[in-house]
Structure formats: structure tokens, C-alpha cells
Design a protein that fits this description.
By secondary structure, the chain is of the alpha+beta class. It has six helices and eleven strands. The mean pLDDT is 87.
């Protein structure tokens, strides 16, 4: 006689929760035998292999409707299912790779800000091409600009404390109809980097004046300021501030 195994033993062997095995059995994905006296599920080696096989396909997130009657499908049908799964996984892989790239970029930005000394302003090229303001206040309209998680920017024109919110874009970003470009990267201009702190819903409460004072004491003439969003922090006093990796245009003073 074939050795029969309990659901607990199969669960331990394959590291699959008992509840999951019961669910697959109830849905007809596997076919466990029943002990006559108490109705407990029993599994021979063939049934265990079925559980193992079903687990393989479920880990690929193949929908339950495709799992029905799995073993009655032809080789061509099984091939098509796996081909569709491969395409989906390839798409998910690309999304994960982009997320990983953005995480590394955000970590690098934060580390540079953490290590920055208050009175040191490293010269740095701005890593995007322009800033645009969308024609509509509806964020759904701005979906194209939100593909990058660091898209939000704040812009202070020269000699102006009034800020403008927009989106940073590059040459690969499709510009939406009616959008207005308010800043264009000019390689001839010089920028230095600093950490910009702005109170949420009260943008005039920021540290820009302090930074400008320090730069002017170092002999710089100052122009426009651009900030790329990093994070939001709420203080113990329940005041929220946005932090930006920011750049201010500088030129040598007289």
C-alpha cells in the first residue's frame, strides 16, 4: 500500500499553510483522499506532487480561473499560460527595476543632504531639463509628469519670495497641451546646492533668506532658486515642513 500523509505533514513538507491546501482542495485544484472514520484529508505521493505543482503556478500569480481543470489542459494551452505569465512578469520586473533605481536615487539625495555642512554650498548641475506648470489643477491631467517620484519641484524666481510649484521634466517627457515652461536649464549658469526647508501651506516661512545671507557673505550674487522634493516632516509642535534638494543660481559678486 502507498504511504498516506496527513495535511499537517504535507503542510510542513512543502511549507504551505494548511488553510491554503484546504482551499485548493475545496476549489477542486487538488484531489485529496478522505479517511472514512473522520473525513480527514490524506495525500499519497501523486497528490503531494499535485500540491507542489499547484503551488508553483500560484506563486506565479496565475489567476484561479486559469487554474481550474489545470491537468485537463493541453500542452499548447499550458504553454500559452506560461507565455502570458512570462510577459506579465517581465513587465513587473521593469516596474521593480525602475522603483529600485528611484530608491537608490532618493537614498543618494538624502545622504548628500545629511552630510552637507550648513556653510558649504557645492557647485552642482541641476539633473533635469526644465520646469513646467500644467494647464489644469487636476492632478489626473498631470499624470504624465508623475511617472518619476521626484517630479515635484518648487521654484523661486530671482528677487522674489513668491514660490511656484511645478514638475521637473527631461527631453523624454511628453509635454501636455497648455503646459507652461517656467524654467529651462542653461549649462552656462552656475548653481550651488543646499537643503531647502519650507512650511507646508505657508511657503514664505522657509530658510531661503538664511541661505542667501550666507552666500552673499561669501561674495556671491544670487538668482533664481529651484528645489526638488525630498520628504515631508512634521515636528512635535505639529508643524509640517517640506524638504527639497535645492539649487540657487550664483555668480561672482563685484
Amino acid at each position: 500500500m502507498k504511504r498516506l500523509y496527513s495535511i499537517g505533514e504535507v503542510s510542513e513538507l512543502l511549507d504551505i499553510p494548511r488553510s491554503t491546501i484546504r482551499y485548493w482542495d475545496a476549489e477542486g485544484l487538488i484531489h485529496a483522499a478522505r479517511e472514512e472514520e473522520n473525513g480527514y484529508r490524506l495525500f499519497d505521493i501523486d497528490a503531494i506532487f499535485q500540491v507542489y505543482d499547484i503551488n508553483f503556478y500560484r506563486k506565479l500569480d496565475i489567476p484561479m480561473k486559469q487554474m481550474k481543470n489545470l491537468y485537463s489542459k493541453s500542452l499548447n494551452e499550458m504553454y500559452d499560460i506560461l507565455a502570458e505569465t512570462e510577459q506579465r512578469l517581465d513587465h513587473e520586473k521593469k516596474i521593480l527595476e525602475q522603483k529600485h533605481k528611484e530608491v537608490l536615487s532618493r537614498k543618494k539625495q538624502l545622504k548628500e543632504m545629511i552630510d552637507s555642512e550648513p556653510d558649504k554650498f557645492p557647485e552642482e548641475e541641476i539633473p533635469f531639463q526644465k520646469i513646467v506648470v500644467a494647464a489644469s489643477d487636476d492632478l489626473l491631467y498631470s499624470k504624465e509628469y508623475l511617472k518619476n517620484y521626484s517630479s515635484f519641484v518648487i521654484y523661486f524666481p530671482e528677487n522674489n519670495q513668491n514660490s511656484i510649484y511645478g514638475f521637473c521634466t527631461d527631453e523624454h517627457t511628453k509635454e501636455l497641451p497648455g503646459s507652461q515652461t517656467i524654467w529651462q536649464n542653461d549649462p552656462a549658469k552656475k548653481y550651488v546646492r543646499f537643503l531647502l526647508k519650507v512650511e507646508v501651506n505657508n511657503t514664505k516661512n522657509n530658510n531661503l533668506s538664511e541661505v542667501k545671507d550666507r552666500l552673499q557673505k561669501q561674495g556671491y550674487r544670487l538668482g533664481q532658486t529651484i528645489g526638488q522634493y525630498l520628504l515631508t516632516h512634521t515636528t512635535k509642535e505639529k508643524i509640517s515642513f517640506e524638504y527639497y534638494r535645492a539649487w540657487i543660481e550664483v555668480s561672482e559678486g563685484k
